[in-house]
Predict the 3D structure of the following.
Amino acid sequence: MENTMQKMLRLWSRAEALVYVGIGFTLLLAAMGALVQIWWQYFAPWLLHPTHAAFDPLSILDQLLVVSMLGEILQMVKISLTQRRMFSEPFLVVGLISVVRRIIIITAESNRFLEQHETRFTLFMAELVVLGLLLVVLVFGIHKLRRQRLEEARRLRAERREHPDTPNLQDVLSGQG
C-alpha cells in the first residue's frame, strides 16, 4: 500500500514539474514575443524612417512594464521548480510593478481627461489615491519580508555558531534542513 502511495506521489511531483515547465516556457515565449513586438512596432520604423515614425515613449514604457511583470512571474515559476516552495515576495513585486504601471498611465493621460470630462478626471484621481495606498502597502510588505528573511539568516548563523550541526539557510529554504 505504501509503495503504491510513494509511486503516486512521485508521479504527481513529475506531473507538477511538467506543468510548471510548460507555464515557464509559455511565459518566456510571451515575454520574448512582447519584446520583439516593442522593437518591431516602435524602434524598427524609427530606425528606418526617423522623421516619419511615431515614437510613443508612454506606450513603450507600458509594454516594458508588462514584460517586467512576465519576467517576475517567470522567476516565481523558476523558484517553484528549483526550491519546491512558493515565496510571497515575487507576488508583491508583480503587484508593485502593476500598480506603478497603472499610476504612470493615469498620470500621463490625466490632462486629456481633464479637458474632456471633469467627472472622469475625478474618478481617475480617486483611483490614484487608492493606487498610492496600495503602493505603500506593497512596499511595506516587501520591506517586512526582506527584514524577516534577514533576521532568520542572522538567527541561523548565531545558532550554527552555538550548535555546528544546525542546518544552514539554503538547506532550510530548500526543505532539506
